[in-house]
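name: query_chain
kind: protein
chains: 1
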Amino acid sequence: MTTSLMIIGALIIIGLAGYAAHLLIKLKQQTRQQQAQQAAQQQAIEAREQELLGNIHYIAAAMLEERCELSEGVMRIGKLFGILGHTEQVISRYPALFAHFEVIEQHPIMEQRQALAKQQRMKLDLIRMKSEAALEADINQEAQQLIKDYALYAK
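structure:
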């Protein structure tokens, strides 16, 4: 009787040990999968950041080549820095760009602009043009600096 109880106890212990080993193996697999997913997500984030920085370089070049209007380029670059979360780090490096961005940031575009009364559109255009005129030379210099700073990300 005691021998059979000992055998049953040993079988239970062996079964539980096997189950514990199975759970440990499963846990290691899940951990590896999570690490692989995190690495893939990090790579995707870095690739996206590289792409956006390359876009900043491209837009700055387009501004200097006059393929992109000054205000449009400033708006796009300002928003891209915002998406990247770099605005606070670069605002002091490109002050004219961000000064103009601050002026035009809230200006409506596309359908919203068309919905405005003509006088309101003209008023916004005047504000934009004054800012452009005052900051154009500095913005162009900063665009040249952007091209240098982000040449690594050029496509």
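note: The mean pLDDT is 94.
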